[in-house]
Inverse folding.
């Protein structure tokens, strides 16, 4: 084959395709969706209409994540009260939690904070798809911005970029959180990354270099010796959450792999440990609710919340930004 790859094609879609659409019908009506096919074995469905999160990822044609019964819902249906967030939690490959609250609902200084905050229900603006090319390769980025802002309160922007390369079964997610206000502002961020069938089943292996693990509650403590095991679906099933202290490599990176050796599909996720030093494993293996969450965070999930003394949330000064980057690679073998 001659060196100039583009001599063989008439349109970039022959190599990497992008489909930009709006969904119709039911509670998903109006949600913007972008589908990316990397020209290899990777297909990703992004939702600019829902915080630039990932609804679905397929590798070699196989689905990798769990999808909840509610399906995609438009931000207009978001209800901040208590656990009503779950009515719009389609789960997907990635749901972003934050920026002013993560974890269980709470009442702080007279203000009710709903489960996992508002960010996952913020639609993106300034959405862009950009292709770049050299003689023998092509790359593609999808980016957009979410704002979590109100008068007399926070004024935060999250700019998210996904970067893909032709034929490379991997992508990088880069987030930049900026304080657009005039006072210092703490923020919380949890990457709720979720795996499901057929990647997730009894054959699945969890590769995680955990230096220490703590159960979230008494039930999780009873099951703690089984935290690496993926059992068949059961009903009823009580969820288990574990907080891990992760090791980091010589470059300061932490990460994990979820791998199915029978189907020969898997995902590796890595990030800078100093940026996201906390980690939660959510194990929910119920019938019809069969999901494994593997979640890096910038503060403890059950720690003190914003507005409480002792909160460990990072603080942005006026005009200051903080950037996070996670790399996802998709594999056939360990």
């Amino acid at each position: 084959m001659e060196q100039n790859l583009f001599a063989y094609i008439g349109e970039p879609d022959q190599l990497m395709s992008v489909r930009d659409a709006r969904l119709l019908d039911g509670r998903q009506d109006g949600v913007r969706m972008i589908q990316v096919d990397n020209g290899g074995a990777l297909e990703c469905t992004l939702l600019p209409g829902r915080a630039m999160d990932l609804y679905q990822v397929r590798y070699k044609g196989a689905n990798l994540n769990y999808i909840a019964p509610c399906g995609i819902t438009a931000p207009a249906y978001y209800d901040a009260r208590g656990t009503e967030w779950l009515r719009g939690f389609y789960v997907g490959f990635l749901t972003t939690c934050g920026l002013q609250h993560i974890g269980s609902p709470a009442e702080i200084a007279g203000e009710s904070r709903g489960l996992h905050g508002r960010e996952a229900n913020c639609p993106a603006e300034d959405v862009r798809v950009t292709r770049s090319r050299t003689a023998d390769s092509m790359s593609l980025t999808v980016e957009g911005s979410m704002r979590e802002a109100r008068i007399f309160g926070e004024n935060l922007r999250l700019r998210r970029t996904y970067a893909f390369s032709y034929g490379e079964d991997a992508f990088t997610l880069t987030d930049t959180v900026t304080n657009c206000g005039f006072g210092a502002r703490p923020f919380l961020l949890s990457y709720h990354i979720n795996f499901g069938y057929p990647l997730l089943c009894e054959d699945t292996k969890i590769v995680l270099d955990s230096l220490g693990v703590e159960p979230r509650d008494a039930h999780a403590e009873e099951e703690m010796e089984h935290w690496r095991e993926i059992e068949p679906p059961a009903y009823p099933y009580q969820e288990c959450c574990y907080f891990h202290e992760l090791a980091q490599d010589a470059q300061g990176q932490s990460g994990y792999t979820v791998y199915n050796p029978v189907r020969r599909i898997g995902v590796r996720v890595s990030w800078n440990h100093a940026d996201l030093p906390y980690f939660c494993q959510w194990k929910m293996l119920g019938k019809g609710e069969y999901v494994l969450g593997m979640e890096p965070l910038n503060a403890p999930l059950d720690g003190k919340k914003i507005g409480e003394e002792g909160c460990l949330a990072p603080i942005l000064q006026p005009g200051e930004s903080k950037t996070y980057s996670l790399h996802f690679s998709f594999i056939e073998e360990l």
The chain has one domain: 5-331. Residues 218-222 form the longest helix (5 residues).
